[in-house]
Amino acid sequence: xxxxxxxxxxxxxxxxxxGLVVLxxxxxxxxxTKDRKDELGHLKGEYEAVDLSIKSRQCTMPSPxxxxxxxxxxAAPEAMKAAPASExxxxxxxxxxxxxxxxSISLTxxxxxxxxxxSEVASGAPTSSVTGELANNGVAAxxxxxxxxxxxxxxxxxxxxxxxxxxxxxxxxxxxxxxHFELQRAPLATVAGG
Length: 194
Description:
It is a single chain. By secondary structure, this protein is of the alpha+beta class. It folds into 2 domains: 2-35, no CATH class; 38-58 and 76-193, Beta Barrel (Porin). 26% of the residues lie in helices and 30% in strands. The chain contains 4 helices and 8 strands; from the N terminus they run αααββββββββα. The chain has helices at residues 2-21, 37-56, 78-81, 188-193; strands at 88-93, 104-110, 113-119, 128-134, 139-146, 154-161, 164-170, 178-186. The chain has an 8-stranded antiparallel beta barrel with strand order 1-2-3-4-5-6-7-8. It starts with a helix and ends with a helix.
């Protein structure tokens, strides 16, 4: 996908050079190349989630030409073996770039299922719904679905360790914003009781 995006950029540059020097009607061809930034962003997000999952599970890659041998599973911390111990509300504001609005997120974990909302606007209004699962090793697999194309949609991997859920994602706005969340757990009973 990166190669296709690069080829399209090179074709646009060539058309621009020919259009400016030789024949200006060639410039109408600039709209003919397809911008693949959304596809590329989605694939990069999936790659980062898989990469994070591989690292957190301590998987190993075989040398080229060698057969794949599964890595010995790492023992899950005691806190991760019992999903109910991790149940709770994970919410807060994220860190972002200086030109972006501060994002906020609220996720509820019941058993091993996440449900919640992301906001990428100053008002705090939800811009994406979030669902997902938590594996026994503390790896979270989340799916974001936005209310419109200006907001984040896609798959994100995260980690839950010591009652802190860590997430990183990249928005799809014109000036793409990077978001980082470190969310502390509040027990369900505490939140429900006030």
